[in-house]
Amino acid sequence: MKPSTQPRAPRPPPTPRGLYPGPNQPPVAAYQTRPPIPIICPTGCSCSFGNLIQKIYRSDFWNFSSLDLLHLGNNRISYVQDGAFINLPNLKSLYLNGNDIERLTPGMFRGLQSLHYLYFEYNLIREIQPQGQVSPSPSQQLHTGKWKR
Q1: Which CATH number fits domain 57-149: 3.90.230.10, 3.40.50.1820, 3.40.50.10310, 3.80.10.10?
Q2: Cα–Cα distances in Å, from 112 out to 17, 52, 68, 93, 132?
Q3: Measured between alpha carbons, how far is 91 from 64 in angstroms, rounded to an integer?
Q4: How is the beta sheet containing 117-119 ordered, strand by strand?
Q5: Are strands 69-71 and 93-95 parallel, antiparallel or unpaired?
Q6: What are phi and psi of 59, to 5 degrees?
Q7: Would you write out the chain's pLDDT as a tens digit for each of its 149 residues?
Q8: Backbone angles phi, psi at 60, to 5 degrees
């Protein structure tokens, strides 16, 4: 006797949600940014809008060498440790726009030999230490916005 319907094919496993999606796939780093329009909390309320990152250290990206885009825009970053991006040799796009960075140091962008796009607008740059500037090659784009004096 034949069944009236065909048996269903087994479903594929769900898409992994962790930092390491699979053996042949690079890790994924996600940083949520605050909304572009400030939200004022009512009196007595405490609001949280995701990762309001304030400092970037060398140890923050030690295991993300295959990362090619990093969006850290619209946080509250005021400090980037020299060599913070040294373990990101494949990084092509870096968004640091809309932060509170006041100083460019000589080693801030060390190790970014593959960088093609740096978006650095809307920061509070007041000081560029000797050898602290970013010198893009002809194939790179650098968006710095206005400088405060």
Answers
A1: 3.80.10.10
A2: 28, 24, 10, 10, 14
A3: 10
A4: 69-71, 93-95, 117-119, 141-143
A5: parallel
A6: -75, -10
A7: 666 666 667 766 655 544 445 555 555 444 444 444 455 555 655 555 556 899 999 999 988 999 999 999 989 999 999 999 999 999 999 999 999 999 988 899 888 989 999 888 889 988 888 764 455 554 555 555 544 44
A8: -70, -30
